[in-house]
Amino acid sequence: MQTRNTNDAWLLPAFRRLAAVTVLAWAMMATYLFINRLHFGAITTVEMPSWVPFWPGFFPPYVGLMLLTWFLPVALQNPDRFRACLRAYVWAWLLVIPWWLFTPTMLLRPPLPGGFWAHAFTWLWNVDEPLNVTPCAHAVGPIVAAWFAAREYPAWRWPLIVTLLLTLPSIALVWQHRPVDILLGAVAAGIGIAIAEAVGTRKRARIVRVPDDEGSSENPSTPSTIDA
Questions:
Q1: Which value, to the nearest 10 degrees, does the dihedral of the CA atoms of residues 168, 170, 171, 176 take?
Q2: Using N-to-C axis directions, what is the helix angle for 140-152 and 59-71, rounded to 10°?
Q3: What pLDDT does 55 receive?
Q4: CA 19, chain centre distance (Å)
Q5: Distance between CA atoms of 82 and 69, rounded to whole angstroms?
Q6: 3-class secondary-structure state, position 106
Q7: What gap in Å lies between CA 15 and CA 220, rounded to an integer?
Q8: Among 70, 152, 181, 189, which one has the highest count of C-beta atoms within 10 angstroms of its own C-beta?
Q9: CA atoms lying within 13 Å on the CB side of residue 49
Q10: Looking at per-residue confidence, does 73 or 39 come out higher?
Q11: In the 8-state DSSP scheme, what is residue 226?
Q12: Average pLDDT over residues 22-40
C-alpha cells in the first residue's frame, strides 16, 4: 500500500507537469506554424554556408531535440525550478518571435533526398515551410530544459552537455537553419534562462524577508519606527 501511495504521489505531479509543458510547447508550435504562413515584410532569402553538408541521417536527432523540449522538464520535481523552466521557455520564445514577424527569412533547401529518408523529409517540408529561419527556436527548448535539469540533477550535467553538442548540429545538417541561426537561438535561450533565474531569486528573497519582518515586528525588544 505504501508503495502504491508513493507511486501515486509521484505520478500525479509528473502528469501535471507533462500537461503544462504540452500546452506551452504546442502553443508555441502552433504560433510558429501560423507565422510561417504570414508575411509582414519582404522575405529575405538566405543560403546555407557551403561548408555545411546536407546529411539526411541526422533527421532522428533533429526530431529528438523537440522531444527533449517536451519531456525533459517533466523530470523537474522542484516546483519552483519547473516554473522557472517554463518562464525561460516563454521569455526566450518571445525574443525570437518578433524576428520572424518583421524580418522574415527563407532558407533555400536542397533537393529532396531519395531512398530511406525521402518520406521523412517529404512530410517535414510539407508541414514546415522554409521560413522563420532566423533565429532558430528549435535550439531554445533543449538548451533551457537541459539547464534546469542539470541544476536539479548535477549528475546529469555532462551527459546533457554531450547530448546537446551532438544533437544541436543536426538542425543545420538537415538544412532547417544555418549555424548562425542556431547561435542566435542559443543566445535567446540564455537570456530567457537569466530572466527566469532572476525572477526566481527575487521571489525567494521576498519570501525570506517577509517572515523576518513579521518576526521582528512581534519582538517586544525591537523598537518600532512609530515608537521612535
A1: 180
A2: 50
A3: 97
A4: 16
A5: 13
A6: strand
A7: 48
A8: 189
A9: 8
A10: 73
A11: T
A12: 90
Q: Tell me the DSSP string of 191-218.
A: HHHHHHHHHHHHHHHHHHHHHHHHHHHH
Q: Is the peptide bond before 135 cis (omega within 30 degrees of 0)?
A: yes
End-to-end CA distance of the chain: 60
Asked if residues 179 and 74 have their Cβ atoms less than 8 Å apart, the reply is no
Q: Which pLDDT band, with edges at 50, 70 and 90, does 110 fall under?
A: very high
CB atoms within 10 A of CB 183: 15
Look-up of cell digits 515584410? 41
| DSSP one-letter string for 42-53 | PPEEE---TT--
Query: What is the total residue count of the chain?
Result: 228
The mean pLDDT value for 139-146 works out to 98
Short-list 33, 42, 44, CA closest to 181: 44
Amino acid at 84: A
Adjacent-strand bridge partners of 131: 106
In 152-161, which positions are buried (b, 16+ CB within 10 angstroms) versus exposed (e)? Answer: eeeebeeebe
pLDDT tens-digit map of 44-65: 999 999 999 999 999 999 999 9
Q: Are 41 and 99 within 8 A, CB to CB?
A: no
Q: Chain centroid to CA 219: how far?
A: 46
d(CA 185, CA 197): 18
Residue 212 buriedness (CB in 10 A; 0-12 / 13-18 / 19+): exposed
Within the chain, where are the H helices? 2-35, 59-71, 79-102, 118-127, 140-152, 157-167, 170-173, 179-218
